[in-house]
């Protein structure tokens, strides 16, 4: 006797599909979505630049805002001094100096150096 719960032949009627599956891929305007994302990113970049220009950084623990400003001023002055020194004194840095190998060690040294 055959089991009546298992069909012998497959059914040719399609399964019913939940309509929620079809609402996932709704048509969208990609250009307007891209423009919106780009404007959000541009606004974020502008806020970052404004914070950098305003020096609106948090003050480190244990220091006051005036101490931080004084350190920044000192660093700026040091950079200006170093920049002016570089332009005056380092014009002839590329001169090569050759050394004589025989004069680089002490003749009275207890270590013997032999060259072959």
From TrEMBL:
* Organism this protein belongs to: Sipha flava
GO BP term (any one): cell division
Q: Which UniProt keywords apply?
A: Cell cycle, Cell division, Mitosis
What protein name is recorded for this chain? Anaphase-promoting complex subunit 15 isoform X2
Q: Which domain of life is it from?
A: Eukaryota
Family per similarity comment: Belongs to the APC15 family.
| Pathway this chain belongs to | Protein modification; protein ubiquitination
The keyword Transcription regulation belongs to this UniProt entry's keyword annotation: no
Biased-composition ranges, Polar residues, are 103-116
- A Pfam family that the UniProt record links to this protein: ANAPC15
């Amino acid at each position: 006797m055959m089991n009546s719960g298992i069909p012998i032949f497959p059914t040719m009627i399609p399964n019913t599909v939940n309509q929620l599956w079809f609402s996932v891929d709704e048509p969208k305007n990609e250009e307007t979505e891209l423009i919106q994302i780009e404007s959000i990113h541009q606004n974020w970049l502008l806020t970052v630049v404004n914070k950098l220009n305003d020096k609106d950084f948090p003050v480190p623990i244990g220091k006051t805002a005036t101490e931080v400003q004084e350190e920044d001023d000192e660093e700026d002055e040091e950079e200006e001094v170093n920049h002016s020194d570089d332009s005056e004194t380092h014009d002839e840095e590329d001169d090569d100096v050759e050394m004589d190998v025989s004069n680089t060690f002490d003749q009275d040294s207890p270590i013997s150096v032999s060259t072959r």
